[in-house]
Amino acid sequence: MSVHRLAIGASTFGWTLGSDDAHAILDRFAGTGGDLIDTADSYAAGRSESIIGSWMASRGSRDRMHVMTKVGRNQDLPGLAPQTIRSAVDASLQRLQTERIDVLFLHGEDHDVPLEESLGAVGALVEAGKVRAVGASDFSPERLIEARVLAANGLPRFQTLTTRYSLMERKSFEGATELVAHAQGLAVMPYFALANGFLAGGIRRRSDVKHDARGARAGVHLGRRGLRVLAALDEIAATHAVAPATVALAWLLARPSIVAPVVSATNADQVDALIAAASVDLHRSELVELDRASH
C-alpha cells in the first residue's frame, strides 16, 4: 500500500472526543491528503471503530482511506485464539461498515495461544478477503523472530510493527527491537509519537497539566529532560517556521524503518501541523541536536 507518511490515531474517538469532533478531525485529515487511520477494537469498547465507520459511510470515503485496526484486547473478545480472532474481525468489520481491514494488528502477545494458531486464523481471513495485510503491535524481538520463522513455513508474514516511540520514549524501541524490525524490513509506525501531546509544547509547567488521564500521561515528561527537548524543538521549529509538534514528527520520519507515526489530535485545527511533518527535512545538525537533548 502507498500511504501518506502520517497516520491519524483514533484512540480518543468515543473516549474524550464525541462523534462530531472526531468527524471534524477526519474531515481535515482527509482534506489535507491524509489517508491512513489507526484504531483498535478495544478503543472505547469499539466506539472508535463505529465513529470511523459512520464517517466513512457518510462521506463515501472508504475507497480512498486505509484503515488499520487491532484485535486481542477487547474485553468481550480478549486474546488471540483463532475463534476469538475470527469473531473480533467480523465485529470490527461491522462497526467499520466495510468488507475489509487494510492492516490487521495482533494487539500484544498472547502466551496462552501458540503464535502459529493465531497466524493461521489470520491467514484464513486474508484468503477470505477480509484482511489485506498483517501487523504486530507491541511484540518483543524474540516473538518477531518466531513469527518470521513461521512465515518461512507458509504462514502470513508480519509486514508492519506498531510500538511506543518518541523523542521522550526511546529505550523500548531502540536496540534489539529496532534491529529486528530493520532486518525484517518491517514498516514501523510509532504510536504516542508526541508523548501524549507533551511534544506539542503546550505543557511547560505543572499548572499546564490537565487533570485527566491524557494530561497525567503527558505530565510525566515534565522535568529537566523534557524541558530540554522542548527548548530544542522550539529553536528548530522557529528556523523552519513550523510548530514544535511538526519537528518532533519530522525527527521520527528521519529515523530508519519509520514509515508513518501514529498521532492523535484533540481538535481539527491541530491536524495541519501534524500533516506538515512529511514536508519538513531536518538538517543533520538539527537531528544531532534533538538526539543530544533527548538522551
UniProtKB/TrEMBL annotation:
Ranges for the NADP-dependent oxidoreductase domain? Answer: 5-293
Q: Which Gene3D superfamilies match?
A: NADP-dependent oxidoreductase domain (3.20.20.100)
Query: What cellular component terms from Gene Ontology apply here?
Result: cytosol
Recorded hits in Pfam families, A to Z, give: Aldo_ket_red
Listed name of the protein: Alcohol dehydrogenase
